[in-house]
Amino acid sequence: MSRNLILGTLLTALFLGAALLSFLWTPYPTDTVAITERLQPPSAAHWLGTDHFGRDMLSLIMVGARTSIAVALVAVGIGLGLGVPLGLAAAARSGGWLDEAIMRMNDLIFAFPSLVIAILITAILGPGALNAIIAIGIFNIPVFARLSRGAALSLWRREFILAARTAGKSAPRISAEHILPNIANLLIVQGTIQFSLGILAEAGLSYVGLGAQPPIPSWGRMLADAQTMVALAPHVAILPGLAIVLTVLGLNLLGDGLRDRLDPRLGVVRT
User: Fold this and answer.
1) Do the Cβ atoms of 67 and 222 come closer than 8 Å?
2) Which domain holds residue 221?
3) Number of domain units in the chain
4) What is the pLDDT of residues 39-52, one digit of tens each?
5) Is the pLDDT of residue 267 over 60?
6) Quick one: average pLDDT of 18-42?
7) Which sign does the torsion angle of CA 119, 125, 126, 132 carry?
C-alpha cells in the first residue's frame, strides 16, 4: 500500500470521524456565547481556544467538518447520479444529436470558473447550505459526464461489447452491465478529487456569505469572521484554515493512492 493512500486515508478518516462524533458529542455547545471568554488562546479548558464570541474552537471545527463534508458529499452524489448516466448515454450514441447536445452543454458550463458559477447560482437562489449543494452539484455534472463518456467510448470498440451487442442486448443494458463496472475505478478516483474541490467551494461560498448560514458553523465563515482579528488571536484564522488544508490534502492523497492501486495501466493492481 502506497504512502499516499495511507496518509490520505488517515487524514480523511480523522475529519470524517470528527464530523460523525460531532453528532453525538462536542466539548461545548456551538451556540453558547461566553463574551467573558472571547479570543482565549488554547488551554486546558479550551484545547484550541475560543473565538470572538467565546465559543469553543474545537467544537466549531468539529461541527464545521460536518457541514463541509455533508455539502461536498451530496454535491458529488448529484454529479455522479446525473453526470454518469449522461456520459454513458452520450458514448452509446457517439456522433449523434444526443452526444452533441450533452457535450455542448458541458462546454457551456466549463466556459466559466466553477466558483463563479456557484456564486451566481447561490446569489440567484439565495444563501444557504442547500443552495450551495445545488450550485456545486451542477458543476460536478459535466465533470463526471465527460469522464464517463471518454472512458466508455474506448470500451464500446472492445470485443466483449461487440459480443454483447451481437447477443441482442440494448445500449442501456450494455452500459449498465458492462461499461459502468469497467469505469468504476475512474469514477471513484474522480469522486475523491471532486469531494476535495467541493469542500473548497463550500468554504469559498461561506466565506463570502453565500454558504451555510448562522448559527450553523462553517469553516469558510469562521475564516471570514477571523480576518479582522488575526493580529489579536491568530488561532481563530489558522485553525479553520488548517482544517481545510489538511482535509483537502488528505482527499487528494487518497485519490492519488486509489488511482495507483486501481489503475491497471500503472501495473500496480492488487490481486
Assistant:
1) no
2) 3-32+48-266
3) 1
4) 999 999 899 999 98
5) no
6) 91
7) negative
| pLDDT at position 108 over 60 | yes
The residue type found at 201 is A
Rounded average pLDDT over 225-237 = 89
Give the separation between CA 231 and CA 8, rounded to whole angstroms.
Answer: 32
Place of cell 471568554: 37
Q: Which single residue is written with the C-alpha cell 488554547?
A: 42
Cell representation of residue 102: 450533452
The pLDDT > 70 percentage for the chain reads 96
149 within some domain:
yes
Query: Alpha-carbon torsion 213, 202, 118, 221, what sign?
Result: positive
- Over residues 45-78, the pLDDT tens digits come to 899 999 989 999 999 999 999 999 999 999 999 9
Q: Omega before 29 cis (within 30°)?
A: no
Which grid cell sits at 219? 469553516
Classify residue 43: in a domain, yes or no. no
Q: Evaluate whether residue 241 is within a structural domain.
A: yes
